[in-house]
Specification:
There is one protein chain. The mean pLDDT is 76. With 229 residues, this protein is an all-alpha fold. It has one domain. The protein has 10 helices and no strands.
Length: 229
């Protein structure tokens, strides 16, 4: 193989890894939020299998990434799903992670991870597809290398949430912003509303406030019901 070709492969591979790591922070956060209610052993399993399945699906999607540009409502629905996860985690913040999760909760957490990761990764997928120049091995290599980073980051964030309750609120606020941004950048919303930058920032602020207020209200109601019972 010519030296120039090897150099190009190395540069493209490094570019893909860098892109994926830079854009993986939100994904790690939503994974940590989704598994917070699980005990430590099941938490690790959910993160490992969920992140692995999501990356495997992302490889397939990246190969046909050009078609994603014309798909409407994916980011709209995905953003709403992210907002729901943010509210749900805050609503459950009054309870400690279970010693043994209810039947089916592990599979539910894995499903949440896969759906959230895929819907949040449209921009990531397109960036990786461009850097790979159509090379399937490079796509697989670049996305595969990101798995350990996402798994480590998700475990770290989930542990911090167990120790410091403020991290739960901070994470929910970030997901509120991410969810609103996803919804407003959906092709259908852009085509029909043409939202200006000011509206986007305002909607993100409103989403953050609504997520925190709703989650806090549900959390307090759960505590009152538990105290009354």
């Amino acid at each position: 193989m010519p030296a120039g070709t090897v150099s190009r492969l190395l540069i493209d591979g490094f570019s893909i890894i860098l892109i994926d790591l830079l854009l993986a922070g939100d994904n790690a956060l939503v994974i940590a939020m989704a598994v917070r209610a699980l005990p430590e052993k099941q938490r690790r399993l959910a993160i490992l299998f969920g992140a692995g399945a999501a990356v495997a699906l992302r490889v397939g999607i990246t190969i046909v990434a050009a078609r994603l540009l014309g798909i409407e409502f994916i980011k709209l629905l995905g953003g709403a799903f992210i907002l729901w996860i943010a509210v749900k985690v805050l609503a459950d913040a009054s309870s400690e992670p279970a010693v043994e999760p209810p039947r089916g909760r592990l599979l539910t957490a894995i499903w949440f991870i896969v759906v959230a990761d895929i819907t949040m990764s449209i921009d990531n997928v397109l960036a990786v597809a461009g850097a790979a120049r159509g090379s399937v091995p490079l796509i697989i290599f670049g996305l595969g290398v990101s798995i350990p980073f996402v798994v480590f980051s998700s475990n770290l964030i989930a542990t911090l949430m167990d120790r410091y309750s403020v991290v739960v609120y901070l994470g929910s606020a970030i997901l509120g912003k991410v969810g609103a941004e996803m919804m407003l950048t959906d092709p259908f919303v852009v085509r029909t509303l043409h939202p200006p930058a000011g509206l986007t920032y305002g909607a993100e602020a409103v989403a953050i406030a609504c997520v925190l207020a709703t989650g806090r209200f549900l959390c307090q109601r759960t505590r009152k019901l538990r105290a009354a019972g």
